[in-house]
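Per reviewer request, we include the raw input and output of the structure prediction for the construct analysed in the revised manuscript.
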Amino acid sequence: MAVNDRLLGIVAFVQAAEAGSFAVSAERLGVTRSAIGKRIARLEQQLGARLFNRSTRRQSLTDDGQAYYERCVKALAELDAAEAALDSGRREPSGRLRVSASVQFGRRCVAPVMLELAQRHPRLDIDLSFSDRVVDLVEDGYDLAIRIGRLPDSSTLAARQLTEERLGICASPDYLARCGRPRNVDEFEGHQAVVYGRNGHTVPWRLRDDDGEVREPRVQARLRFDDLEAIADAAVAGAGLALLPCWMLSRYVRNGELQMVMYADRVIGSRINAVWPHTHYLPLRTRAAIDLLVERIPQLVAWDPANPAVVCG
């Protein structure tokens, strides 16, 4: 096997091992699934060892494959480092970057960052997909996802926290005039609320009381939506209290359509994370996207307790 063919086989092997799928690795490398299969088959023939246990949907490594994989990723990392040392300051992110984000947060805060990334790097193509469904990055072929909330333990994914999402509780002036303004956690009892729910699960409200204890207020959640804009619209219509992210609340507060009832310093928020398939050598385009998200997202979701209407620019 020629040296170049062997290197192509090793790259295909490492990508397939990390993706758990020949089809996904083929999409990442921009070749056909059969090309990946042929490269790995030639590599196995040259090594005289079977590297994968093959099934119809996923491929798992054999013991020989696992041992070979661990050495290959170190070798590829060394090659990557050597290229970076020689080409420092001249390398440019290129190729296609596939990114997934939730609908409202993606449109409001992720899209501007991806636009800036594309403007910085003309050789980079970006596919940004908006969905509130939690996509399988490996199976669906995504390079990066922005996720809000607790992440499940995973050996196939890596993550970096971007910032903390600030939340606030609000209501329309009409609702507060009719039903009163709760001043502490106990006074939430009996109030109508519009809550976020998905797949039969309602996201709880978690507030700090005057003693710093975290509690869940007792509200009457007669309306449950799986869309933040719908929750905001219902709150504006006077349907009850609503828990919304501050980056979304700002325009409603500025317009006088909603008033803050409890501020972000009393409401327990969620982490915003960048998540990507675990790999021992991260493509430059993915690294560039993560670095810019780390820089920009905290600015876009910043909350000023002295001026709660000034959020997200």
